[in-house]
Amino acid sequence: MHVSRLSLVDFRSYAEVDIAIQAGPVAFVGANGQGKTNLVEAIDYVARLDSHRVSSDTPLVRAGAERAVVRAEVVRGDRTALLELEIVPGKSNRARVNRADLPRVRDLVGIVRTVMFSPEDLALVKGDPSDRRRFVDSLITLHSPRFAGVRADVDRVLRQRNTLLKSAGRRRDVEVATLDIWDENLARLGGELVARRLTLLDDLGPHLSKAYLRVAADAADHRREVMAEYRPSLDLPAGERDPEVIGGLLLEEMRRRRGDELDRGVSLVGPHRDDIALSIGDLPAKGYASHGESWSLALALRLASFELLRDDGDDPVLILDDVFAELDQGRRQQLADLVGDAEQVLVTAAVEADVPEQLMGQRFRVADGAVTSGG
């Protein structure tokens, strides 16, 4: 799988740009602030309907414009598909495939799949639980696109339930009975999501171990084993993966803690309270890993994601956004060796010399709002 053409209208810094892209390694080179990341962000956004830099759509639309349009032509085997996404802040976005409207924008997810590694990925190791949940949930939807609907439904139920909890704190005699309905909805949907997260981490684990050994080949023996372990907001039996069983346990815990939730006006139990505990050797990565170890673990998580998605039969588009400046020459070459066989690798860099030669296939120069082919 690879992207063969990218067209942007009023996306980020671009009033308009249209470029043909080849399979294999592709490098976008230009000084900081010229728009390199905007190009690869557009491709990643079409794949996941999520940005690695911002949490809302508003910054994606060029200042002064009402909407942005992203068009990506995707080649998969002998078939080509044109994906179009219209981003309208404050309103419903719209999506089309081969000029036909999709009934739901989220149906776009998974048609093209991407794995992006960027400096922001240090948050996977050093950041809040929400960063790690977002990583796992995004990978779930790329691996199993139908779960985009489950994620959206969980978010919707949580908003409704939290609103009710806040109002019930003042009018318990009127509102509390309604909570039973929302408890059941959150338990059912939460059971599905938690079960899928657990299964995904089961599948990701072997890939993560192999990736970290390759990325951190020079680490001491006692610091070469890594784990990603799910930490739910309630006690789960070891090895439990049944959504109905997990949903039942969530419902019991919500009822047990209802008094606390009413007092605080917020949902204290559910998939939104879970975390993924990352460890290196015998110690938690957060708070104990060095900067280099954190960087290696974040990269290993992305490479493991790539291999997991590759197991489905198609290479996702691999994006390396401004990462080579963080690495010494040896690690740059090591990373290039690890990803060199991907069907398409999109690289951004401020300095051309930072990019290993084997990843300097097709080249684009990005400067002054323009993207030109060649050195």
Description:
- This protein is 40% helix and 23% strand.
- A six-stranded antiparallel beta sheet has the order 2-1-4-5-6-7, with helices on one face. A six-stranded mixed beta sheet has the order 8-12-13-3-14-15, sandwiched between helices. A three-stranded antiparallel beta sheet has the order 9-10-11.
- Helix 3 crosses helix 5 (172-215) and helix 5 packs across helix 6.
- With 375 residues, it is α/β, with parallel strands linked by helices.
- A hairpin with a 2-residue loop joins strand 10 (275-280) and strand 11.
Keywords:
375 residues, alpha/beta, Rossmann fold, six-stranded antiparallel sheet, 9 helices, 23% strand
Q: Round the mean pLDDT to the nearest integer and report it.
A: 92
Number of strands: 15
CATH superfamily of the domain at 1-113 and 320-375: P-loop containing nucleotide triphosphate hydrolases
Sum up the overall morphology in one term.
globular
Largest sheet: 6 strands, antiparallel
* Radius of gyration computed on alpha carbons: 22 Å
Q: What is the highest CATH level, the class of the domain at 1-113 and 320-375?
A: Alpha Beta
CATH topology type of the domain at 1-113 and 320-375: Rossmann fold
What is the count of helical runs?
9
What structural class should be given to the helix and strand makeup?
alpha/beta
Which architecture of the domain at 1-113 and 320-375 does the CATH hierarchy give at level 2?
A: 3-Layer(aba) Sandwich
- Binned, the helix content reads 40-55%
N-C termini distance: 26 Å
The proportion of strand residues reads 15-25%
Low-confidence stretches: none
Q: Summarize the helix and strand pattern as letters.
A: EEEHEEEEEHHHHEHHEEHEHEEE
The largest sheet has its strands arranged as 2-1-4-5-6-7
